[in-house]
Amino acid sequence: MFGDLKRFDTHQYQPDWFQQLFDSLFPDTGAADIRSVPRGSFPLINVGRTDDAVHVYVFGAGLTAGDLEISIQDNVLTLQGKRGTQDEDDAGEKARSHYRRERASGEFSRTIALPEGLDPDRAEAQFSNGVFRIHLPKRAELKPRRVEIQAA
Amino acid sequence: MNDVVKHDSSRRDVSTESRQTVTLWPAVDIYEEDNALYVVADMPGVPHDGLQLEVDNNVLSIEGEISLDMPEGMSAIYAELRGQRFARRFTLSHEIDSEAIEARLENGVLNVRLPKKETHRRRRIEIQAA
């Protein structure tokens, strides 16, 4: 569903047009040599809307519940946290030679503006498979209401 | 009349194009340590059963279907991650023991360990004083 949206362009790690063209011409070269040597915002955010709520999806691979701080103020959602690198996790290990380092690491802070009329007090968040889903219900008075038609 | 037909067909092309599954390239870290190569890939939203890891003809392919818990009737209002699946391939060098590859998926991060064959392990060469 989110695939249909092409209005926003962000810096995501994607092969450039030339590489894509090349890959489509010569499909077999699509595999990069594992040792060949060659970044973007983290985490990526998607927002969806239903009749009674706004859902924010935060793609934070490698983060656990304690690593991400979610706060809402004046309809502005702020996500803060830190993703450690693996090198730090097993500090003191032997030297490593890196061939690729595309994954963002370290501290991050991202802010997005939310639509009006949400009730931040009833917001909930859950996470699974590296995706955080924030459920922000709309204020009751702003939900669409069905208007009954009465026979005259 | 011919023009109208032409218009129609071009429009159909555009719509089928936008309905194609969009495949993303997962960001990876690749490093070597002692007797193995390691591939770490960010694949948020990919559950265990949506992940496919294959080694064929010295090509390692990583594929994952993104599955999000989406309520019915939701419409997208903003999207940075636009795609339904992740896929990426790497050519392995001959010293990798493809039988002994291990992988682990944790919180959307895939860790693949590619051990080298016994015969290709690093040996220390003693330097002798002349």
UniProtKB/TrEMBL annotation, chain A:
- PANTHER family this protein is in? HEAT-SHOCK PROTEIN 20 FAMILY MEMBER (PTHR11527)
Q: Whose protein is this, by species?
A: Aidingimonas halophila
Q: What region holds the SHSP domain?
A: 36-152
Region annotated Disordered, chain positions: 82-106
Q: Which family does it belong to?
A: Belongs to the small heat shock protein (HSP20) family.
Q: Please give the superkingdom of this protein's source.
A: Bacteria
Instruction: Please name the Pfam families in this protein's record.
Output: HSP20
Could you tell me what this protein is called? HSP20 family protein
From TrEMBL, chain B:
Domain of life from the UniProt record? Bacteria
> One Pfam family this chain carries?
HSP20
Q: Where is the SHSP domain?
A: 19-130
Matches recorded under Gene3D superfamilies: 2.60.40.790
Entries under PROSITE patterns matching the protein: SHSP (PS01031)
Q: Which family does it belong to?
A: Belongs to the small heat shock protein (HSP20) family.
What protein am I looking at?
A: Molecular chaperone IbpA, HSP20 family
Species of origin: Aidingimonas halophila
